[in-house]
């Protein structure tokens, strides 16, 4: 293993405070540090912040005294991430493009590019930790559980983790901001980016309509009563309340709000029920496919662990029964789960150790 002073690290710099502090900490630790800014979306629209992000990253790199490379991965992003995003919505599911962005762009295209530049390691500002255990690289949660990003990182494996540093994974976010301010970084109070990067602050339906033709249809109750019209199944997700355009129906005594509980894809029907805790909104188990195991080895028998089927969810106790193919499984929960959504990811944990995850089928 090379000494730190001879280890060349290229940091993925987005212009935000997290990646900026990551670069700063690596410099302080004695690494040979360079930055790289990734352009992943090259459509010219008012919602894309890439130009401003690059200026922020450039300003930080100049302040830290490190080179800043710039690479365009828009083709890789559109071919490997955005195309999947559209296909899943077209099929009525709700995908999470951030998982694929990490797997296909940040820890594949970026990693390969950095290696071609002569890097020994890459680093990012993600809230996660790499722990080496008897030659196996484990991915553990960031210590700041409000910011932990292992849910989005669970599709990367041993090759990537062996070459990756997460310099801020052991630091709470408020402390990261304080380090940035104390170090004189101009972006110490920059607002965190949220939501899907290529959509930005625009209306989701407005964005999707640019790429997929809408197919309006009926909204029905579980017993087949028509209660409204939807603009397209792709615009809705399980558990959704807002945007249904139904309420105050005279034939229903209850004034409780309506929620999406399912989709009849064959007949283009959106199914809805009343009440936050309606039984149709809950599932005791789910099926997962395309499972990726961080250590590269599928369990050979059922095992107990915790899991998340959406990012902000607290860990839920469950029994995972892995099928013979090693990449599909049944997940049975100790407590029924609300709004389990096809197309999203279920991610498995053993304490802080992220074991991997798969797509909810």
Strand content: 25-35%
Order of helices and strands: EHEHEHHEEEHHEHHEEEEEEEEEE
Q: For this structure, what is the CATH class of the largest domain?
A: Alpha Beta
- Alpha carbon gyration radius: 22 Å
Query: And the CATH topology of the largest domain?
Result: Rossmann fold
With helices defined by DSSP (H or I, 4 residues minimum), what is the helix count?
8
Number of domains: 3
The general outline is: globular
Question: Numbering strands along the chain, what is their spatial order in the largest sheet?
Answer: 12-15-14-13-16-17
- What is the overall pLDDT average? 93
What would CATH call the architecture of the largest domain?
3-Layer(aba) Sandwich
Task: Report the span from N to C terminus.
Answer: 42 Å
Give the tally of β-strands: 17
> What ranges have pLDDT less than 50 throughout 5 or more consecutive residues?
none
The helix-and-strand class reads: alpha/beta
Going by CATH, the homologous superfamily of the largest domain would be HUPs
Q: Which percent range fits the helix content?
A: 10-25%
Biggest beta sheet summary: 6 strands, antiparallel, barrel
